[in-house]
Amino acid sequence: MHIWVDADACPVVIKEILFRAAVRAELHLTLVANAPLVTPRSPWIGTVQVPRGFDVADNHIVSVVAAGDLVITADIPLAAAVVEKDALALNPRGELYTKTNVRELLDMRNFLDTLRGSGVETGGPRAFNHADRQAFANQLDRLLAKQSANRGIT
Length: 154
What we know:
alpha/beta; 6-stranded mixed beta sheet
């Protein structure tokens, strides 16, 4: 499993959780962003800087993700694309995107986008909080434990 992070909008606290997890589990973690990133020095952690532009980071992730990889993103269209490639997608609030729920979430996102485009105020996401951070850490731990069990590692 390789962990890919849509890093431009990923909260710093989530990146820190991912840094610790990658080193602990000895899994490659790559942050993809359109700006330079500072990461801990580790053979398990890397970055890819892509040019600025609409969906450039997303397109890069979709082009390199493989079945069984994990992508961290709050971007539902990106999540839908990686789930189609049999990769896992997890948002920073701990919600796992699946083939079952991602289509529904994408439809809702598109509906709300249409409403906003016609002038309806739909509000934004609620503020990121400690419960979100904990939900993410717990879901990540479950996914990494399952991945370790599948590799026969205790």
